[in-house]
Write a structure and sequence with these properties.
Chain A: InterPro entries: MMPL_dom, Mycobact_MmpL, SSD. The complex is a heterodimer. By secondary structure, chain A is an alpha+beta fold. Chain A has 26 helices and nine strands. The N and C termini of chain A lie close together (about 10 Å). In chain B, strands 1-2-3-4 form a four-stranded antiparallel sheet, with no helix packed on it.
């Protein structure tokens, strides 16, 4: 294919000769376009500020996975199982059997009773009348409330209380094994039964903090309060989203300082920052108009958009300063900068967008939302950066200081670039390659330890040392419960869920699972039936079995907790408590259940996976594992194709893509070493890292090719490349890194993981482009043949 | 953590073959009487209902068809091969090698290798058929008696016949459901002669090592078919059965005929022991109740144990008596039962059986499996 630019040594992409149509359109209507963009900004900005945090549970899970479909179809029969908070009231000195402690507990129980959203009939604490002790006597049962009827706080009634607690069966459940804390258990309504309003998790969580934790810890300094439960976790997550505002501020300040250091020009600093913020407003406003809220994942997109806006804006400022240094006025400099950059700029941004699009392979709504949000953001950056930014700059121009900075720094910079150009030297390049191969080898070695899923204890969304996870650890440690629950749903024909065959099969499944590594314990209606059958036979353990007699079964489950039987008795759950939520644990357990379900689902009972947080995680892990290879294949495919279309050379593609591949491998090794699993939050990092990381390669290679075609030697050509674009590329890497590095301090664990990994990928891809690309070029490129080919094409 | 420690110290092996511990492929769930107990390292840590001694070997039985045995005083356990998965409730050895275990679904298991392998000798269906057959015979007999009886007695006998017929209907209804009722205890004199007792007054007797069984329930005065909870032999050769509603039955002719004794206590009795002295009986049950008789149950004294826990089982060895109960209760007496000391174990788990090991220590079985304890019942380790 003939290209008239090549013989002049100019790359057709970077230096189109003529004024393109777009340039004329934009520069001949500067005022009109600015007014239109201002109006658009006002409109979208107005919508942007109205955007609300939104931590919808459903959007974070893979809704198309069969487990989740099963769960969602039956969620109304299951809902009371999962949604509760447990408030552990711990006494610091002494034990719970004191008048002060019991008084605090009584007041606290009353306070929880009146919280909006609490299902009062299910509220349990030592002070509620549904907590009883029972004893078998010659006449049958005798029992009463755990708090003695005539309780008056005296030694005697406290001693009575202690006895009642011991025979109440609540030790390990409502009362900790060491008698230093008790639990107030509050089931919650998903929807307010009177108003039908959904529970406001953020508000509920705030009330727990204010009306319960702060109030009672202040009132009784001898107690400490620990709160866990889905509602509290979601509340903390929403709170965490708020912290992001601080990071935004810090990021903007850091970027601004860096930009000024780079350009030494007030306008060249403020205008890119301003236009990038505009892009963020457009993006947020559009999201709001499309009906989205800000979930913990998409809240990060504005940072990316801002960083991408800045990093491409820098190219414009750089180009304008160079043109201004040649003596052009502001408008002409802007025009020339636009002409030089609009094609590679668009190309780079489009490749970013393609990187985001690969996220659609992950069948989880938050991730797809993230892709949409980022896609919209990048599309807007094309306009704010290449149109708005350029137009504003065409009015304000680069300051004299900025121009001087460009002129003065030439020589000093050159020495540095001269040194770095040795990366392409025939003596240095093999060493670089050797280092890269060693790095690759180490990466591949350590990457073997890479795990799917969440690896830490407690709520994986939050940090291990977060208040929530500390509370969670306290409760796990002091009570016989696990926070990781897999629920197997057992479906039967209506009114058949308590049949002997159903309970017997459930019991068999439970035994299978108790013999599975990673399972701590199990619970179901079968256990209730056994334990009550035993109780009905005067507490004799020899009767601890499911009776074959249906009348006895029916008597045994009359008082079963409502969550274990749905309204028409067609669904009953088996709860499987796991030791942790590591991917292997989940997979082993799920495989056992599936094998059991396949062998034992019939017209009497069907075993369905899965509900419970561990069920959701198992489904998520499966979706992630499946999506991972597809996504990698696609993102590298797209990036390679894009490079090939641009440079028409497989060797060029290799020069650009190999450094990216090395970064990806190292990133996975780092994940393995630092205990970050592949999960909903970290998988997108790979796509984002590669999609955005390829920009560096495109900028470097396009210049390198240009200088090679001019007939320069490789090292000389690379020196010129660094001189013209090296600074911008390094700067781009640094700004992108800064854009995400603040996330590391997020209270939300996965945001911190994303920030850390993206920071690494953005910086390391830049290093790869500057250090490894020229070394690869030494081995892969044949400058003489390239020139000959270009000549022949002419 | 605790469990894994215990597993290590107990040194469980699955039939001595590690392969047997591997997870079997998932199979369709079958009837518990037809499903062999799963080899599992959990067996010593799950509910065990009874423990017996066969020579130097300790054998314990429990839920899910678990039978485990130890040849080193309970330090390590091996799981036996058992053809059923029902909850087992009782175990006894007639000789050092010949043993029987009983449980739910009317299961009676027999081992002739000191508890290593077991076979099913009787199940709830067969047992129910035997009981129905003997009930039918009794009804036929009653009908004959009514025909022959003088008119004055006829009415009473007709009432008795009604009761028998009603009981028969119940048995037949139960049989329609399947093998519903559990045996609760077993006792064997030798390799041939033994008894099993259970729910709703069930009692069977064998004279040929379990090859054939006879319904023995009609020989006890238990018209309301109360549960029979335990059976044992006391020094002197008398047999004693105790059960629901304070029942105490004694036989002095090897079990051929039985006499019901008056009980000073109307609540359920769950266990019975001989003290080792001729004709002395200890019977115990609900709410810390302990009854003592020195004359084969003709007269009783109520011993004040100071406990309110249900007492399940134990042993008497000279002046030393140890009883285990619900809620972690362990009662010890060093003076032949004159006074008891109660220790409530920290885990508050039910104790179903106690055997003495290593002179002063105790091996407890019950809720949560096997536990090593000191002489008072306090956990060791």
């Amino acid at each position: 294919m003939s290209n008239p630019m090549h013989d002049k040594g100019e790359h057709y992409l970077t230096t189109p000769k003529a004024e393109p149509f777009l340039e004329r359109l934009i520069f001949n209507n500067r005022a009109v376009i600015l007014v239109l963009l201002t109006l658009l900004t006002l409109f979208l900005g107005y919508n942007a500020v109205k955007i609300q945090p939104d931590a919808s549970f459903e959007r974070m899970i893979p809704l198309e996975h069969p487990y989740i479909i099963n769960m969602m179809e039956r969620r109304h029969d299951l809902e009371n199982l999962g949604n509760f908070v447990r408030i552990a009231v711990e006494v610091k000195e002494g034990d719970i059997f004191t008048q002060e402690y019991m008084e605090t507990l009584r007041q606290l129980t009353d306070e929880v009773f009146y919280l909006n959203g609490v299902d009062r009939s299910g509220l349990k604490s030592l002070w509620t009348s549904n907590v009883r002790w029972v004893e078998v006597t010659e006449q049958g049962f005798q029992g009463g409330t755990v708090i003695p009827d005539n309780y008056d706080g005296s030694r005697q009634s406290l001693e009575q209380l202690r006895q009642n607690v011991l025979r109440s069966n609540e030790v390990g459940r409502l009362v900790s094994d060491n008698f230093k804390s008790t639990i107030v258990y509050a089931p919650l309504y998903e929807k307010d039964p009177e108003t039908g309003e959904p529970l406001d998790y953020a508000e509920f969580s705030r009330q727990l903090e204010e009306k319960i934790r702060s109030k009672y810890e202040a009132q009784n300094p001898n107690i400490e309060i620990h709160i866990v439960g889905f509602a509290k976790k979601v509340g903390d997550l929403i709170e965490g989203i708020g912290a992001i505002a601080w990071f935004a501020g810090i990021t903007i300040i850091l970027t601004t300082l860096l930009l000024y250091w780079y350009s030494r020009c007030i306008a060249g600093t403020l205008v890119p920052v301003f236009t990038s913020i505009i892009a963020v407003f457009w993006q947020l406003g559009t999201l709001k108009l499309l009906g989205y809220g800000l979930d913990p994942y998409s809240v990060l997109v504005p940072f990316l958009v801002f960083a991408i806006g800045i990093s491409h804006g820098v190219q414009i400022v750089n180009a304008m300063a160079v043109e201004a240094a040649k003596g052009f006025d502001a408008v002409t400099a802007a025009r020339l900068a636009f002409r030089a950059l609009y094609i590679p700029g668009m190309l780079a941004l489009i490749s970013d967008a393609f990187g985001f699009l690969t996220l659609f392979f992950i069948e989880i709504d938050v991730i797809r939302d993230l892709a949409v949000a980022a896609g919209i953001g990048v599309a807007f950056v094309i306009i704010t950066n290449l149109v708005l930014h350029v137009l504003i700059m065409s009015y304000v121009g680069i300051s004299k200081g900025g121009v001087r900075h460009v002129q003065n720094h030439g020589e000093k910079q050159d020495r540095k670039w001269r040194l770095m150009s040795y990366f392409s030297h025939p003596g240095v390049a093999p060493i670089s390659l050797l280092i890269a191969v060693i790095g690759l080898g180490l990466g591949l070695y350590y990457k073997q330890g890479l795990k799917v899923g969440d690896l830490d204890q407690g709520a994986p969304e939050l940090r291990e040392d977060s208040r929530y996870n500390q509370d969670n650890a306290f409760i796990i440690h002091n009570y016989s419960t696990s926070a990781d629950v897999l629920v197997v749903m057992v479906e039967t024909p209506e009114e058949q869920c308590t049949q002997y065959n159903v309970l017997h099969a459930m019991d068999a499944l439970q035994w299978e699972l108790q013999n599975t590594p990673g399972v701590q314990s199990t619970a179901s209606l079968a256990d209730v039936s056994k334990i009550v059958t035993k109780a009905l036979n005067e507490g004799n353990w020899k009767w601890y079995a499911i009776s074959r007699n249906q009348t006895i079964i029916n008597a045994s489950i009359r008082e079963a907790p409502s969550g274990l039987i749905n309204t028409d008795c067609s669904l009953t759950p088996v709860l499987v408590f796991l030791e942790d939520h590591k991917a292997e644990t989940l997979r082993t357990v799920v495989e056992r259940v599936e094998a059991f379900a396949a062998a034992n689902s019939n017209e009497e009972h069907t075993f369905l996976l899965a509900a419970g947080n561990a069920g959701v995680e198992a489904a998520t892990n499966e979706v992630i594992s499946k999506a991972k290879d597809m996504m990698l294949l696609f993102v590298y495919g797209v990036v390679s194709l894009l490079c090939f279309v641009t440079f028409r050379s497989v060797r060029a593609v290799l020069c650009i893509v190999i450094p990216l591949g090395l970064t990806s491998v190292l990133c996975e090794a780092i994940m393995a070493v630092s205990g970050i699993g592949i999960k909903v939050a970290t998988l997108p990092v790979i796509a984002l890292g590669v999609g955005i990381g390829v920009d560096y390669g495109i900028y470097i290679y396009s210049k390198l090719e240009k200088y090679l075609l001019e007939g320069k030697t490789l090292q000389e050509a690379y020196f010129e490349t660094l001189r013209s674009t090296g600074k911008a590329v390094v700067f781009t890497g640094v700004t992108l890194g800064i854009g995400v590095v603040t996330w590391i301090f997020s209270p939300i664990k996965f945001q911190a993981d994303m920030g850390f990994l993206l920071f690494f990928m953005f910086l390391w891809n830049m290093v790869g482009a500057i250090w490894l690309l020229p070394a690869l070029a030494r081995f892969l490129l044949r400058p003489d043949r390239m020139v000959a080919k270009a000549r022949a094409a002419k | 953590m605790v469990t894994s420690l215990m597993r290590k110290t107990l040194g469980v092996t699955c039939l001595g073959l590690s392969m047997a511990c591997a997870a079997p492929a998932a199979m369709a769930v079958g009837d518990l009487l037809e499903t062999p107990a799963r080899p599992t390292e959990l067996a010593p840590h799950r509910l065990l209902n009874d423990v017996a001694v066969a020579g130097d070997r300790i054998v314990a039985v429990g839920e899910r068809g678990h039978i485990i045995y130890s040849d080193d005083q309970g330090q390590s356990w091996t799981q036996a091969q058992v053809p059923v998965s029902v909850t087992l409730t009782g175990v006894d050895f007639g000789t050092e090698r010949e043993g029987w275990a009983v449980g739910h679904s009317g299961a009676v298991l027999h081992s002739s290798d000191a508890g290593a392998t077991w076979e099913l000798q009787l199940d709830g269906i067969q047992a129910a058929r035997l009981a129905i057959a003997s009930q039918e015979a009794e009804i036929a007999d009653m009908e004959r008696r009514i025909e022959d009886a003088p008119d004055a007695q006829k009415e009473d006998l007709e009432w008795a016949l009604d009761d028998l017929t009603f009981a028969l209907e119940n048995m037949e209804a139960d049989l329609d459901i399947g093998p519903v009722n559990p045996f609760l205890d077993v006792w064997f004199r030798d390799a041939e002669h033994g008894f099993v007792v259970g729910a709703y007054g069930m009692m069977f007797h064998t004279k040929d090592g379990g090859r054939t069984w006879q319904d023995w329930a009609p020989r006890l005065d238990n018209p309301q078919n109360f549960h029979l909870n335990a059976i044992t032999e006391v020094a002197g050769g008398a047999l004693v059965v105790v059960g629901e509603a304070g029942q105490i039955h004694v036989s002095v002719d090897g079990g051929e005929t039985w006499e019901r004794r008056e009980s000073p206590y109307p609540g359920s009795l769950f266990g019975v022991l001989g003290t080792g002295r001729v004709n002395e009986i200890l019977a115990f049950g609900l709410r810390g109740t302990l009854l003592e008789s020195t004359d084969l149950g003709r007269s009783w004294t109520i011993v004040n144990t100071g406990s309110t826990a249900t007492l399940n089982d134990g042993f008497a060895d000279g002046d030393r008596i140890v009883l285990g109960g619900n809620g972690g209760a362990v009662l010890t007496s060093g003076n032949g039962g004159a006074t008891f000391r109660e220790y409530l174990r920290e885990d508050r788990q039910g104790v179903m059986g106690v055997v003495p090991v290593a002179s002063t220590r105790l091996l407890l079985v019950g809720e949560g499996g096997v536990k090593h304890a000191d002489a008072q019942g306090k956990n060791l380790q």
